[in-house]
Amino acid sequence: MNVLHLGRLAHLRNNPFQQPDALEIIDRGALLVGNDGRILAVGDRSDLAEQSRGARSVDHGSAWLLPGMVDGHSHFPQYHVTAAAGADLLDWLERSVFPAEARFADQEYAQSAAAGYVDRLLASGTTTAMVFGSQFLGANRALFDAAKAAGIRLIAGMTVMDRGAPESLLQTLDQARDGMERLIAHVRSDPLLHYAVSPRFAPACSPALLELCGDIHRAHPDSYVQTHINETPAEIERVARLFPERHDYLDVYQHFGLVGRRSLLAHDIHAGDHQLERMADAHCSVCHCPTSNLYLGSGLFPLQRHVQRNIPVAIGTDIGAGTRFSVWQELAEVYKVQQVQGYRLNAAQLLYLGTLGGAEALDLAHETGNFAVGKSADYLALDPLATPYLAERLDRCESREEQLFCLLHLATDKELRATFVAGQAAWVNCGMPH
Ligand code: GUN
Ligand code: ZN
Fold it and tell me: Which option is the CATH number for 3-67+370-428: 1.10.1060.10, 2.30.40.10, 1.10.287.130, 3.30.420.10?
């Protein structure tokens, strides 16, 4: 049976950095969703009356319905290591992260963490996430199985590394190959699950391991690649020392065939123009993680330099260097990180970065990211009336766009009513009246 989802709709029809009128807000909005979870029609509910005759309706009342958030970067085995000690990236990894990641060798622990982690993503309005998995095969199976059970769209892969960390986290080439191939087979038949070849970053990978990653990616052309780049000066110096024959950090990954349309490079704070030009030519994407960059003191992401070159940019929580699970709340930090650099973003641009822009960066814009007919009905319902102050503040706005801007800065998980993936409620806020 078709289902009619009712609420105030707000989404991006296209890229607002290129088309200033891309934002569409429909006050008495309706999404008509078919049995397969895809959007059959979108518009004002009165215009959909004829088409939706006989459909069951899910009325979200005063809630705003927004496309599900896309989290472009997060680490599953850092679920329990948010807000941990570290002077900077490399110190934090050694001191806090590696010991925490080693615990995922324990299958029972990994299973319980997987269920909690996926639930946190959905409870934050995230419907699509690109995630670094564990170094341990069983923990990654647990992550994919938890995602499948919860109904979230997940791109993930085994974090592979063979140097620069405690022995228990390192894989041999045979272990890495076997782990990646088994997990690729594990997710193959599920339309919501995708595999990402996930070399941690160049300092933790030998040339032989990076070559293996390139081979696996080539052998499975629909696989993704995720890794880190240009996050801190000390990390960049380490890469130059370890790979003296390569021009720069990007060249290391390009040399091994890891940079293409389905590659997502996290951070890219300290990129020179030459690297940005080559990223644009290679059609890869970058993920910006504002709270992580501030927390580790890594620097200020140059968004404008990426936008000028049409490099797709996703937003990531980067759990656990990031300090919150919510991409929605990261968007307010995106705004501030650009403000201090003199680059002013509006509501449409912010919402785009967390939704359609993220989907484009993950090469999933044919599936999710906005309310276009034919896409999966992935959305969150956010009810500003749940918080008296927020309701008062919105009352004083002069336009819906201004209201959206306030929501982007002021609404939190507390106002989230439910998260839907493919038309199904994947998470419902049990504390909120319906
Ligand atoms: N670079 C390599 N590994 C990591 C990680 O776990 N977090 C962050 N923020 N950067 C990294
Ligand atoms: Zn990361």
Answer: 2.30.40.10
